[in-house]
Amino acid sequence: MAISLKLGAAILTGAMAFGSVALAEEIPEVAVVHQVIDLNADTPAHAFRFEPKFLQVPAGATVRFKGSTGRHTVTAIPRMIPVGARVFEIRGKPELDLTFEKEGVYGIRCRVHGRHGMVMLLVVGDPSSNLEEAKAYLPKLGEAERVGFEELFAYVEAQNG
Fold it and tell me: Could you tell me where the DSSP H helices lie in 76-142?
């Protein structure tokens, strides 16, 4: 059964706030990622977000992305996915399933709301295949995206030691 853990604050190399995290041993056959618009949120980063914003699955897992409607997208950042993995962008779909075979990290953002920090990190199997390359791309991102990914990469490193 999938469980999203609500973490008010996690201590990982300093204090970082995480909205929700799904861990590998809790992933069902199809993991689900929601795109959330919360107009009552206190900051843009909380108003526009993926839930969970960190997801770790085994190679071959299927992830169902929900809520890519209106101006929302689920967009893979080409320099933040494993070499040879398919670049993808989902838009105008209430839900779409994608299966991930290539191990590594996948940096994902909403093309429109990424500027508010609407990012997520998908880890498929072993993150080490492209973790350093994905981190090296951080300076090319906008501030909110960069900060979001820095927190997520710190979380990956803490989990995978």
Answer: 131-136
